[in-house]
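notes to self, project folder thing:

trying the whole complex as one job this time. last attempt i did each chain seperately and stitching them together was a nightmare. two parts in total, labels are on each line so i dont mix them up again. if this works i'll redo the older ones the same way
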Amino acid sequence: MLGAIEAGGTKFVCAVGDETGKILDRVQIPTTVPSETIPQVLAFFRKYQIKAIGIGSFGPIDVNLGSATYGNITSTPKPGWKDYPFVHEIKNALSVPVGFNTDVNAAALGEAIFGAAKGLDSCLYITVGTGIGAGAVIQGNLLQGLSHPEMGHILVRRHPEDRYVGKCPYHSDCLEGLAAGPAIEERWGTKGVDLVGRDEVWDMEGYYIAQALMQYILILSPKKIILGGGVMNQQQVFPYVYTYLQEFLNDYVSLPELSKYIVSPGLANHSGIIGSLLLAERALKEV
Amino acid sequence: MLGAIEAGGTKFVCAVGDETGKILDRVQIPTTVPSETIPQVLAFFRKYQIKAIGIGSFGPIDVNLGSATYGNITSTPKPGWKDYPFVHEIKNALSVPVGFNTDVNAAALGEAIFGAAKGLDSCLYITVGTGIGAGAVIQGNLLQGLSHPEMGHILVRRHPEDRYVGKCPYHSDCLEGLAAGPAIEERWGTKGVDLVGRDEVWDMEGYYIAQALMQYILILSPKKIILGGGVMNQQQVFPYVYTYLQEFLNDYVSLPELSKYIVSPGLANHSGIIGSLLLAERALKEV
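result (full assembly):
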């Protein structure tokens, strides 16, 4: 039996399951401060005999195995979590191998093995929600270099009719600053779920997401693109994404039919937790 | 002994050497049409007993091993080269294993093994010249997915003072359309080499290159970035690139000191041909 933690900014999902992606038990724990959240996490896993645990975590995190701070959450503004030695604490308490990556890289792995990109050695998973993040599987490996990707903060050209200043505290009108849920809410004065019939909202959203996809495609050339997260539950965005992407790329690269290439998650909202189970499996193999 | 071809739009560089990157003989052949260029290429290699050959080619090319058109140059406007079965012709004539990739991926490999990124498992090589292209080594592998990257065509925000329309036939004012050599020449009315003292030229160039690097860093997180090609021989661009990149990223990700992170090629203008020798070595190992 394997353990998995999908560590998010508002809640931790903990699960036990196996390497086929089957979940046997799960629990949700609010993300407050480590001294409150982590003991509940440990109590859940102590009910089971797990052989390894995988963590898909909110970031930024230190994923460099050679680093002295490997396994830490690094510069988050979330009280109590800055410099939290996540891997160290879990490994110490449960004495099992721990796999550790970003929540979005875990989700990309889940989708590549069991989801919409099953059978492919490459996919890009993007979540558009409270923030925008992306993870990628490239030639079978989780994308990583100097650090993990931070794809949500790429620059985009502003929509000609967009007067909204942007919400990113670092870059103001980067992709996340213009297209994540809080930006939609602030620009239009109400949450995205209450804007369903407003075509101009989703046209603009599609404009920004298509621009981002163009950059990702030209740089990474993923074999499948998966768009998840709360905002992407608004399925009316997809046609705008396809139309703008076609316009922007202008047939420069040949792609599969866009409605089959750019899709919703195959694992619904379980990509991250199932991917974290797979991180556990990989950690076990590396021992 | 190994063979290497760096196939460019104006000339083919052919060389023989070994897996340490040592070049024993080399020749340059003008790129005209295949029926003229290729026989000269073959004549050069027939003087030697080579065990394998590596090709770093101008593109776009088909690099998917499973494809029926693997090894072909695909949609180039260059007369005679569209759909040219490059790997097939060379393998047929010389009866050795053939490694095949883009010129820029070959250069990235050369730099990762023997150049500015020696000892690292990750680097990005960008050439800014007649066009803009980039190749990457990620976790030791040459970056590839659905196809090879086409990073030169990413979208950038226009410099506020740039009135030039852009030169890319597909995207008008994408990165290549605004920042490659021909765009510089058309915008300012004379070639870059004659604009050395004109600060506004290199400020604008740095603005565009820094934007591109921001996107590449956030998406790929390379461990080293190498800027080559004719335009980058204008070393006065580098300070502008560092200044704008710092401004755009705004400390969102932590990077090494920029002057050590973003550098000129370690192999001068031999990155591509040495990388092609390494493609030959890899092809030999895969037999």
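what i see at first glance: The first helix of chain A runs from residue 34 to 45.
need to look closer tmrw
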